[in-house]
Design brief:
By secondary structure, the chain is mostly helical. It contains 19 helices and twelve strands. Among the domains are: 74 residues, no CATH class; 53 residues; 85 residues, Orthogonal Bundle (Arc Repressor Mutant, subunit A). The mean pLDDT is 96. The structure holds zinc ion (2 copies).
Amino acid sequence: MREVMTAEAVYRALLDRGAEARLIYIADTYDRLRRLYPFLPESFSEHIGKPLSEIPCPYGCCPSYAEHFLAPFLQSMERLGIRPEVYRADRLYKEGKYNEAIKTALSRSADIARILKEVSGRDVPEGWSPFDAICSSCGRTNTTRVTGFDLEAETVDYQCSCGFSGTAPMSGGGKLVWRVDWPARWPIFNVTVEPFGKDHATAGGSYDTGKRISEEIYGYPAPFPIVYEWIHLKGVGAMHSSTGIVVTIQEMLDVVPPEVLRYLIIRNKPEKHIEFDPALPLLSLVDEYDQRKGDERAIELSNVSKSGPFEIPFRHMVTAVQIARGDQEGLFQALQRSGYDITARREEIIGRARNVQTWLDKYAPDYVKFQVQESLPAAVKNLSESERRGLGLLAERVDDKSAAEIHDLVYAVAAEEKLDSKKFFQAIYLAFLGDRQGPKVGWFLSSLERDFVCQRLGEAARA
Ligand SMILES: [Zn+2]
Ligand SMILES: [Zn+2]
């Protein structure tokens, strides 16, 4: 996600400067299945080594393994407002788009091997070839050895450890190894800017070798590199497929509105790691974006809908959602009662309510969770005389006051009854939630039905 988001921000910035630019996403659908991942059935061990595009969907719902995992990623990009030209590596190979690059690589494999050795310090293994043929008997690419090639016929000869030997077409019969595949696509697509994770940026790593292969073998200047750091999930570690710490974009979009997710990525320089804390700090992040109070340019690049600030604070949504308890009409009423405009941006409100619900279920600290009690909580009996009098006064004076006015009223009544305001807050929460803590009191009380508020305060006063 950080990769496509970074590329897209560069793309938008270039367009803003009047440059001609295209945003390209190449899905590595022709890579081989490396191992039996924990989410795969045991029967899939027979597919290890085969290209992802040639393996069936593990759930039987898509044309291939590759498509099954690509589809949700493409959907998430769409939700994030990222609309690149999407290419699938397997189709590019099958259509012969790489044929010239394959021929060049095979003809100059000794030069490529020398570059790999000079840059990475490692010798290529005996019998190495820049091309991995797919065995037409067992379907694997990690078990074949290239024994020859024919530039005219555009074919590659191979032997497979399964015992088979054959001839594969360059188009659709295999693919270039990663370190050659990457630079090979740069001239094919005229790539000029390429973001990639820091794992490719190490000294002697695949960008370093790719740069030399691009320039010396393909005669094409390597694209401008943008190295990005990982996103760390607070308290868990760096998210990367290799660490096994993975939160899918969809999972993130379940709790973060799309533009805020864009903002999270864009406001940080690519080379800085992002500490993503999905607990309370997430609320501040959303509010920072909604109120347009953060990095101005990052907000501009994130705001694909070109909308103005979003009025309802995310923290207040957390209150309203818990009052509404899954009832959409109830949610709108709660928001309206607390003084927010519910006629505009209803879809966004609904989306955020969904985000908040997931956030409450998965990441919220317990103390922000509450439940309005249907009847007067028994603990109210422990309140003092003056606390009870205070609640009675609130009941009389709350009438049609706004959230901020109720907030002031609570302080005024506390002062009048010579109560510590914090204690008085606790008395109020106790009467409604059966708990000594709760959300911002004025906004909380104003979100509830006013008759109910008066009735409950009165009951508590008389208890
Ligand atoms: Zn599927
Ligand atoms: Zn084989």
